[in-house]
Design a protein that fits this description.
By secondary structure, the chain is mostly beta strands. The chain has one helix and 27 strands. The strands form eight sheets. Strands 4, 5, 6, 7, 10, 11 and 13 form a seven-stranded antiparallel sheet that branches. Strands 8-9-17-18 form a four-stranded antiparallel sheet, with no helix packed on it. The termini are far apart.
Length: about 325
């Protein structure tokens, strides 16, 4: 961290009224660069951020407002924050205000690439609003969207720890995502009788919405039914993984599941001898008790599906009647 110290005077000064020399050192007050201190995600770039630490290879966006006498004004326009010199800084240096009556309020988001969707909103939980975000758009499919706790009332004199340690920055996940799909059958298959998975897709997911407060988004009515990777799996009684996407995950805007609407659609073929039967089945999310009727913020979902088949079987054979026993006596002359 660069420190800007200006030596205004350091000289032996001869005073006219006195023959004694005085050495006077005048040093300007230090101008302190604003730094950040990202910390753990509250729960559980590219790809979902897992764990509770924020990688120094990542960047995020932040803005700040200057507050004095009840009035606020933009102090730092939304900027990219990145790690260098063992601290987190914006590329252009910004400094803590000298005015002891002024404070700064900070609002941060991840990733910086969603900055066009983000705006300041004093009524929002995190002080920021994310408007009309399309999680399914090509440019957005890989972003783990997060907002940080807002930091208000910070100043060089009132909260001195932020000068050295940086502005506290704790992010919270705003999306959920489908992490994995695993499928098996309930019966042992063989050479001439088996199940092949042809296609797996989601059905009627909301993909666009606006976030301001709470645990839910205000959703657009439009839906998508994304196809996941073509599995071409021949099922066994052991779970086999279906790649959700080439990246291994699919982000979902938190939403409530409606009966017989959102679900996981599986298209498959049952081969028996020379006969192929093309079938499909839908696992509706609203029917999964553990989901509690929704895709919840900050949750990753793996779906394990069993495709059931009814094995052809024969009842205990019986014989209409036993042999009729006949004994004949005869003589031959």
């Amino acid at each position: 961290m660069k420190k800007f110290i200006y030596i205004l005077a350091a000289a032996s000064v001869a005073l006219v009224s006195c023959s004694k020399n005085n050495e006077v050192n005048l040093v300007a007050e230090e101008d302190v660069v604003i730094g950040y201190m990202p910390v753990a995600n509250k729960t559980a770039t590219k790809a979902p951020i897992t764990g509770t630490s924020f990688s120094t290879d990542s960047t995020f966006g932040s803005m700040a407002y200057y507050v004095k006498d009840g009035e606020e004004s933009l102090y730092i326009k939304s900027q990219k924050v990145y790690y260098h010199d063992e601290k987190w800084y914006t590329e252009t240096a910004y400094f803590w205000p000298k005015n002891t009556e002024a404070t700064l309020s900070f609002y941060s988001y991840y990733p910086y690439e969603i900055n066009s969707y983000v705006s300041y909103d004093s009524s929002a939980d995190y002080g920021l609003k994310i408007a009309d975000y399309d999680v399914d758009a090509d440019a957005n499919r890989t972003y783990d969207v997060m907002l940080a706790d807002k930091q208000t009332g910070l100043s060089k004199t009132k909260t001195e720890n932020v000068v050295e340690d940086g502005v506290p920055t704790q992010f919270h996940h705003l999306l959920s995502y489908i992490k994995g799909i695993e499928i098996k059958t309930n019966v042992k298959t063989g050479k001439d009788a088996y199940i092949t998975i042809d296609k797996v897709s989601a059905v009627s997911l909301n993909h666009k919405g606006t976030y301001t407060t709470g645990e839910t988004w205000t959703l657009d009515e439009s839906t998508v039914s994304p196809d996941f990777c073509e599995p071409a799996l021949k099922l066994t009684t052991e779970y086999q993984k279906v790649d959700v996407t080439s990246n291994g995950y699919y982000f979902v805007i938190p939403q409530t599941n409606t009966a017989k609407v959102q679900g996981l659609k599986i298209e498959y073929t049952v081969t028996t001898g020379e006969t192929n039967e093309d079938l499909e089945a839908t696992l509706y999310f609203a029917d999964i008790d553990k989901m509690e009727g929704k895709f919840a913020m900050g949750n990753a979902y793996t779906f394990k599906v069993t495709l059931g088949l009814d094995i052809i079987k024969w009842e205990q054979p019986s014989i209409e009647k036993d042999w009729a026993t006949n004994t004949y006596e005869a003589s031959v002359e």
